[in-house]
Specification:
The protein is mainly α. The chain is built from three helices and no strands. It starts with a helix and ends with a helix. It comes from Streptomyces xiangluensis.
Length: 148
């Protein structure tokens, strides 16, 4: 292959590649409406997520407990009658309990974290307001000193 051929093939490849490029976004004139690129989650959104996590925790605790008790009883009955299926069902019941606890822990973590975040943001807002208030007081002192 000659050098000229190589250069021609490279330039053709670059041309093909540039026409195939596509950005995964809306064109500027169509926009997503509002603050493009900013993730916004309002208090109502966070409250809804927290409530859903709490509701799932409460309901799942009740219903998974019923399923566990019924499965344990069935496993015990089957094992008592000499069925190998009883041991298998007992194993499934143990795994169910472990997985249920994991899900319940995750739900509690979500709910607790959102509550903590809400309280932390309120404390941050209070701190910022106090700091800004102090700056305004300081500015007034400088203005008084200048005779304004």
């Amino acid at each position: 292959m000659a050098w000229d051929e190589w250069e021609q093939l490279k330039s053709q490849a670059v041309e093909r590649q540039s026409t195939q490029m596509q950005l995964n976004q809306y064109p500027a004139d169509q926009g997503g409406g509002g603050t493009q690129g900013d993730l916004v989650a309002g208090q109502q959104d966070l409250a809804a997520v927290g409530k859903a996590a709490h509701d799932l925790f409460t309901d799942f605790t009740t219903y998974s407990g019923h399923a566990r008790v019924a499965s344990e009883a069935a496993a015990g009955g089957l094992k008592g009658e000499g069925f190998a299926l009883g041991g298998a069902l007992e194993h499934v019941t143990e795994r169910w309990s472990q997985q249920s606890k994991t899900l319940l822990d995750a739900c509690a973590h979500i709910s607790n974290h959102l509550r903590f975040t809400k309280n932390q943001h309120a404390a941050d807002e209070s701190y910022i307001a106090g700091t800004i208030s102090s700056i305004a007081t300081l500015d007034e002192g400088f203005d008084d000193r200048k005779g304004h």
